[in-house]
Amino acid sequence: MITTAETYHTPVLLQESIDGLDIKPDGVYVDVTFGGGGHSQEILRRLGKDGHLYSFDQDEDAEGNILDDNRFTFVRSNFRYLRNWMRYYEVEQIDGLLADLGVSSHHFDDETRGFSFRFDAPLDMRMNKRAGMTAADILNNYDEERLADIFYIYGELKNARKIAAAIVKARSEKAIATTGDLLQVTEQFFPREREKKETAKLFQALRIEVNHEMDALKEMLNSACELLREDGRLSVITYHSLEDRIVKNFMKAGNAEGKVQQDFFGRIEAPLQQVGNKVIVPDDDEQQRNPRSRSAKLRIGVKREK
Questions:
Q1: How far apart are alpha carbons 211 and 221 in whole angstroms?
Q2: DSSP track, 129-166
Q3: Which of 22, 66, 243, 260 is the most exposed place for a label (fewest CB within 10 A)?
Q4: Rounded Cα distance, 296 and 300, in Å
C-alpha cells in the first residue's frame, strides 16, 4: 500500500485544535501524535524562527512523513515517555501540547495490521510493531475472566462474559490468528442491526489492551501538567468515552479519577482550567468530509497560576 503524508491521515479539528494552543511564535510545543504530520505542519506555520516543535510517534510508518525543518524534532517513542524525552532534550517547560488520540485512518486502511474488521488480516493491532503482545497473543493466552474484563471495561460490551467463554472454547480447537477467525467466533453475539457497532467495540477493546492506551494517556497527561509553563495550553482530541472521561477529569481536577482537591479556604487545587464552557465538536461539513471526525471531541486546558 503506497502511503503519502496526504493520505496517511486527515487531521481532525485542525484549525480549532491549533487555535486552542494560542501559539507564541518563539514558544516550545509538543505534538504527541504526529501521524501524517497535519497538525505538526500547522503548528510550524505559526511558529517563528526561534520556536520549536517536538513530535512523537511510536509507529515506524510515521517516519515517512518527517518534516524537513530545523525547528522540528521527531521523537520515535510512545508519548507516555514524554517527560523522559523532554529531559533528554533539556526542555524544562513547554508552551503547549497537542494530542489527537485514537487510531489514524492510515491504521484502519492498512490491510496488514489487523485494526479493522473490514479485512481478513493477522490480529496484530500494535502501534509499535517492534515490541509487545499482539491481539492474537492476548486472545490465545489470557484466561476467560481477564478477557471478559477487557471486553466489558474497554469495549463496554454487555455480553462480555459470553464472548470470552466462546473465544476460550474456540481456541482450544484452533488458535485465533486472524480477524476472520475472531469474527467467526463472535458474530453470533451481535444482532445484525448492531453488528458493525458492536464489532467495532470488540476491536477497540483489544486495541486498547494491546497498546496499554489508558495507562499511556494518564502518564502523558501527568507529564504534560508538570511540563506546561504558566498559561501554557493543552489541546486534546478524543474519540470514545473512556479516553474522553480521563481527559475531562484531568481538565477538572488534575487526575484521571476527577477527585477535586481543595485548599484550606475551599478553593479548587487543580493545575488546569478548561478553556470555554463547551466541548468543541466538528461541524457538519467536516463530519461529511471526514467520517472519522464524527465522534471527535476537543477539550482545551490552560495552566493555572500557582
A1: 17
A2: TTSS--HHHHHHHS-HHHHHHHHHHTT--TTHHHHHHH
A3: 260
A4: 13
Q: What is the pLDDT of residue 30?
A: 98
pTM: 0.89
Report pLDDT digits (tens) over 273-292. 999 888 999 999 999 998 88
Residue identified by cell 463472535 is 186
Residues in the chain: 306
Q: Measure Cα distances from 292 to 63, 176, 190 in Å.
A: 22, 28, 23
Q: How distant, in Å, are the alpha carbons of 159, 177, 206 from that of 171?
A: 19, 9, 16
How far apart are alpha carbons 294 and 132 in whole angstroms? 31
Q: Which three cell numbers stand for residue 46?
A: 505559526
Q: Say if CB 93 and CB 227 are below 8 A apart.
A: yes
d(CA 273, CA 304): 6
C-alpha cell at 268: 479548587
Grid coordinates representing 21 are 494552543
CB atoms within 10 A of CB 19: 17
180 vs 171: CA distance, rounded Å = 14
Task: Report the distance separating Cα 203 and Cα 56, nearest Å.
Answer: 24
Helix H or strand E encompassing 68: none
Whether 266 has a pLDDT exceeding 80, the answer reads no
